Amino acid sequence: MSTQTATANRPKQDLTPDEKLEKLKEIYADAPELGKAALKNGLAMLMQELSATGRAQTAGRIGLRQGKVSELCVFLPFVEGGARRLRGLLQLLQGNFRAADAVGTVHDMRFVFVENDTKLLFATAYDGDFDPYIEDFAAKIPNAMDLWLCNFEGYPGMRNPKAAADWIASHQIAAEAWYVNSPNLTAAETRRLEKVGKAVDGLLDQIG
Amino acid sequence: MTSVQESVAGEPSATAATLDLKEIQATVLRPRPAPYFGTHVLLRVDTAEGGREFLRRLTPHIASAANWWNAAHTWLAVGISYRGLEALGLAPESLQSFPEAFRVGMAARAKQLGDVGVNDPAGWEMPYVTGQVHIAVQAISDSEEKHRRALAVAREQYDSFSGVTVLAMQDFGAQPGDLNSLGYKDGIDQPPIEGSGVDPLPGQGRPIKAGEFILGYPGESGSPLPMPAPDILGRNGTFVGFRKYQSRVAAFNRFLRDNGSTEQEREFLAAKLVGRWRSGAPLTLAPETDNPALGADPNRNNDFNYANDPHGRQVPFGAHIRRMNPRDTTLTRLTDVNIHRLIRRGATYGRPYDPAALAEEYDDVPHGAIFLFISAKAMATIEFLQQEWIDDGNFVGVGDERDPIIGRQEDGATFTIPKEPVRRRIHGIQTFNVMRGGEYFFLPSISALKWLANLK
To answer: Which chain B residues are within 8 Å of A137, Cβ to Cβ?
Structure first.
């Protein structure tokens, strides 16, 4: 709920850069001296940012997107023993996630155990929306999904894809801000360009 | 002439049908006749009692799918929109049991469907944007005479009383040769349905679980898809997405001329856009020149996969048929191709395709295609296809490129044709089919129609 309130209080986006700066100064009126000085001394770059067109878009039901890349961040409550099992699983996988490779749209994933191992903060960057593909996950990688998500309260199982999608969305927290360095590069496109780059280098090696 | 039946039906299977064919509307399983003559009648229900009376009178004339593989080639079908179900007086708990996209209707899902810009519902024809299209009746036949008789039967059921009002009548049919509005033979590739009583044609792949297409049967996941309540209403019914497009034939012809200096080059480009020659012959089996005999043979014209074409040098990754059914193409995203299929009942309206038409004014007179997409989750599947396979190209590694035939193109759109030593990239591709209207309809079973007609 707190995220929604924060969003509702967001300043209107049609302010001029100068109006935005005034607003920012107001917001920072009670900041520590260090912050006030930073505002003053960092004005040049800040004005560039305040003058630029907004890049943030919304992704799917909840969450933000820049270009083709969306963010998903969930805060999931462990069931009894869930943290122990998931930690064990993740340690044995040693960073190998074949299902994520197969999904093809996942840029990164991080699994952070918080609040004394009672909750997991899971954050990922991925292309597009996940809702349209939830049934594909259910058809193609139900076991990989169930294996880690079974450790959380209320997870309905991938055999019930619609409910699983609803469950994920219900635990999702929208990021307040989202930055992507190459917002137009999907994970697939990145892999393709990697190959193209190598091929071009190979060609140049032959010529040179 | 004995029926051509060249479109899609396979041979009756040695194993008996397990679907309740006498309950399922014929149009779900019967392929479009060839040749075909048809009309869609769009009606508004003025009073609940009047609408139910109309259904009571009409239902005995609605064909079921019993013996669909050798049944007559003339039939009536009926679909009801969400607003139609409301107008008929369906109980609120039953109305709420329908999927959300169906409840709000196709125009309200414009964002999810990518129906924006030239395809925005604000520019649709009457009556699609009014929310008043409650019932759609389809009359179709393989002869003009029989079509007229079928239509007359439908008319008798609504002409004599005031319960329903005809909002629009749209004739369709394509003669000669059953070519679509851009001059291609179409409707060739259909999903094979398990238990329908017919073996798949060569190349159709393994039969797909019936529950993907008809409510009340197990789907690909093993369990039935969510079904509207009560059971009598949902079971053996399905959904249809009705999308009417106006074709920009002259623009299409000009595009071919701009990018091909000879007839041969133009036809080759036309084949690359679709993945089939105009005859229906697939490029995988006829990569260099057309083979009309192959195109006309239902046992051969769909009998291929892309195992020998991993780089898209025969059928470009962005070609229409490779998008609509990628078969064994390696996709960049985890996808189960079998859960994104639709039964397609496309039909052409307006003048036959004229390859010589080039003038801007030529497209002022409407001609185009009416697509009926049938599935137990038609709304979700159409949205998926529109977002992922039609108005995007990332799933097959062609970036932002869109379906060259039914995609909505942005300025500067391209179409890439892989070839050795370097690919050819075509510029100046435009929106060749513009949305003119659409709606989602529920296709109730025969028992459900009777049940609706007798609602209190």
So the answer is: 334
Beta bridge partners of B441: B240
Average pLDDT, integer, range B136-145: 94
Whether the predicted model's global pTM rises above the 0.95 cut: no
**Of B221, B226, B384, which is closest to A132 when you measure between CB atoms?**
B384
Please tell me which residue of chain A has the smallest CA distance to B395. A188
> In the predicted model, what is the mean pLDDT of residues B121-125?
95
Cα B219 → chain centroid: 20
Domains detected in chain A: 2-54 (no CATH), 58-170 (3.30.70)
* Residues contacting A48, CB < 8 A, separation 6+: none
ipTM of the complex: 0.79
Q: How many Cβ pairs closer than 8 A exist between chain A and B? A: 59
Tell me if residue A18 falls in helix, strand or coil: helix
Handedness of CA B351, B158, B64, B143 (dihedral sign): negative
Sign of CA dihedral B214, B215, B221, B223: negative
pLDDT at A65: 92
Which chain A residues are closer than 8 Å to B390 by Cβ?
Answer: none
pLDDT of residue B432: 97
Distance of CA A45 to the CA centre of its chain: 25
Chain A residues close to B334, C-beta within 8 Å:
102-105, 133, 136-137, 140-141
Q: Select from A132, A137, A189 the Cβ nearest to the Cβ of B388.
A: A132
Q: Which residue reads 């809702």 in tokens?
A: A131
Out of B331, B339, B399, closest to residue A139 by CB:
B339
H-state helical runs in B312-398: 320-324, 378-384
Residues on chain B bordering chain A, Cβ-to-Cβ distance under 8 angstroms: 220-223, 226, 331-336, 338-339, 383-384, 387-388, 394, 397, 399
Q: Is B201 within 8 Å of B299 (Cβ atoms)?
A: yes
For chain B, domain boundaries: 26-240+441-453, 246-438
Report the 10 Å Cβ neighbour count for B208. 20
